[in-house]
């Protein structure tokens, strides 16, 4: 037996198939001959069965509805069951109503699709916010006590959320944190003190970060500015970096041991 | 100075789409800071939106390469779609999720126009089950549960989200094409349905008096005098 390959249009459901058949007839939905349509629909289902396509239950329900309509039509008109007003909808009318409704939403889906494609080609104007000069800080220098105060607040916050978590090795060192800090300051012109501790997970990490900050301030790499009382502390690069970075990390490696060994005692 | 030009200048420099409320707040803030802006300190929402719409029309009439769009109630300048090739070359392709499938679009259309709507009601219109499609639409955040219908079983009802409006660039649900018509499709039943090869097995009509006519005749005969 010769093998035929038939390309099938894929129908979303029985209503879709019916609309396709009506379209092929080139008639208005309201004027379609339902008995003829029933025959065609069932022919289609037969083909689908021949092709071993899985026929969804909905198609069979529709086929039986169409057969019911057809069987009613076949009776002589005077013997047809009169459609009782309000008791039962005329099945023909019910089907046509459903088809009209479905057709309208199918059209609406097409217009949505047009919009979907159009949206891919529409670009918003997204200007960049002009960089404006930062307001002059009211209180340019931050004392050591201000910093300790701030780090204390962070530590309190960290210990508060400590009640349940995984235990892992503290892998942070001050020199690593110095590198991270220098990188952060280079990336962002305006770094806030609180930004440093957004991702910290442990007390010792807070301490390491803080010691790194102090070290960089000591080496005159960074400056801390607090523009208003009790406001956020801003960290910026020192106007004229004097000490080289290499020196910064190497000098800390020596002092690191004492600080890391017992981070808690370092700040208390 | 005209309000619409002030709004135009704001939207031209805005970093994000601006809602009428944000624009009003901004007008108020500007009035605090500058003497010039005082006359526009308190602009009511209605004239503000009217000014935005007028501005939108101006740009439309001018037929420029960009337009003033209102998506989900927020206003923004956007390019016209036909210039996409050049803008794409400049900024790269827009990052968007894959296009929706035909079943998804149909289902979405029904929900958009008929919300709040239950799953069963959508299935009735489409004539197929919509489980998979509904899941996709919900995962993509275009459709969400909005409540429960007051019918037996209290099934969930669904509606579209703000993301739906954004995704399709719609101002509001009223902005859906032919919204009024599709919300309540007025399908008028025609006088007679020309569906049948009427009575394929009918005996020629002249041979018998249709039952209906017989009934009519009996009805018309005056009842016997009760007295």
Describe this structure in words.
- The complex is a heterodimer of chains A (about 270) and B (about 230).
- Chain A is mainly alpha-helical and about 270 residues long.
- Chain A folds into 2 domains: about 80 residues, no CATH class; about 110 residues, Structural maintenance of chromosome 1. Chain E (Arc Repressor Mutant, subunit A).
- The C terminus of chain A is likely disordered.
- The longest helix of chain A has 30 residues.
- Chain A has 9 helices and 3 strands; from the N terminus they run ααααααβαββαα.
- In chain A, helix 1 crosses helix 4, helix 2 runs antiparallel to helix 3 and helix 6 crosses helix 7.
- Chain B is mainly α and about 230 residues long.
- Chain B folds into 2 domains: about 90 residues, Winged helix-like DNA-binding domain superfamily/Winged helix DNA-binding domain (Arc Repressor Mutant, subunit A), CATH 1.10.10.10; about 80 residues, Orthogonal Bundle (Arc Repressor Mutant, subunit A), CATH 1.10.10.10.
- Chain B is about 45% helix and about 10% strand.
- Chain B has a 3-stranded antiparallel sheet with strand order 3-5-4. In chain B, strands 1-2 form a two-stranded antiparallel ribbon.
- About 15% of the residues of chain B have low confidence.
- Classes of the chains: A mainly alpha (about 270), B mainly alpha (about 230).
- The interface between A and B is large, with 57 and 66 residues.
């Amino acid at each position: 037996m010769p093998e035929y390959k038939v390309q099938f249009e894929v129908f979303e459901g029985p209503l879709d198939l019916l609309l396709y058949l009506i379209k092929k007839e080139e008639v208005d939905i309201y004027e379609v001959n339902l008995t003829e349509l029933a025959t065609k629909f069932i022919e289609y289902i037969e083909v689908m069965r021949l092709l071993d396509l899985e026929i969804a239950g909905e198609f069979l329900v529709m086929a039986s509805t169409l057969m019911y309509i057809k069987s009613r039509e076949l009776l002589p008109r005077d013997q047809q069951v009169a459609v009782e007003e309000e008791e039962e909808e005329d099945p023909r009318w019910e089907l046509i109503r459903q088809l009209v409704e479905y057709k309208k939403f199918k059209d609406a889906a097409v217009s949505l699709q047009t919009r979907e494609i159009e949206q891919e080609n529409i670009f918003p104007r997204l200007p960049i916010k002009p960089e404006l000069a930062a307001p002059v800080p009211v209180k340019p220098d931050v004392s050591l006590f201000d910093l300790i105060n701030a780090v204390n607040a962070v530590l309190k916050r960290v210990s508060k959320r400590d009640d349940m978590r995984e235990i892992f090795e503290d892998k942070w060192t001050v020199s690593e944190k110095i590198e991270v800090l220098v990188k952060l300051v280079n990336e962002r012109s305006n770094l806030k003190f609180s930004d440093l501790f957004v991702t910290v997970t442990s007390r010792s990490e807070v301490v390491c970060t803080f010691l790194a900050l102090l070290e960089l301030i000591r080496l005159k790499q960074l400056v801390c500015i607090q523009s208003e009382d009790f406001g956020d502390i801003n960290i910026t690069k020192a106007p004229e970096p004097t000490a080289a970075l290499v020196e910064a990390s190497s000098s800390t490696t020596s002092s690191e041991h004492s600080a890391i060994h017992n981070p808690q005692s370092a700040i208390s | 100075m005209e309000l619409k030009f002030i709004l135009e200048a704001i939207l031209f420099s805005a970093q994000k789409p601006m809602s009428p409320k944000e624009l009003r707040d901004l007008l108020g803030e500007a009035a605090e800071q500058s003497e010039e802006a005082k006359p526009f300190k308190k602009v009511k929402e209605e004239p503000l939106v009217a000014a935005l719409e007028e501005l939108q029309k101006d740009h439309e009439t001018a037929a420029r390469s960009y337009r003033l769009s209102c998506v989900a109630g927020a206003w923004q300048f956007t390019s016209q779609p036909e210039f996409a090739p050049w803008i794409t070359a400049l900024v790269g392709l827009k990052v968007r999720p894959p296009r929706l499938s035909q079943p998804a679009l149909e289902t979405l259309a029904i929900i958009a126009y008929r919300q709040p709507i239950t799953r069963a009601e959508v299935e009735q219109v489409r004539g197929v089950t919509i489980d998979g499609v509904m899941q996709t639409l919900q995962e993509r955040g275009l459709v969400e549960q909005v409540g429960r219908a007051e019918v037996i079983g209290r099934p969930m009802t669904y509606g579209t989200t703000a993301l739906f409006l954004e995704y399709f660039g719609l101002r509001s649900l009223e902005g859906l094409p032919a919204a009024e018509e599709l919300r309540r499709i007025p399908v008028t039943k025609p006088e007679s349905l020309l569906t049948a090869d009427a009575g394929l097995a009918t005996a020629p009509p002249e041979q018998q008096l249709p039952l209906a006519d017989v009934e009519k005749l009996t009805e018309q005969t005056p009842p016997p005098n009760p007295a």
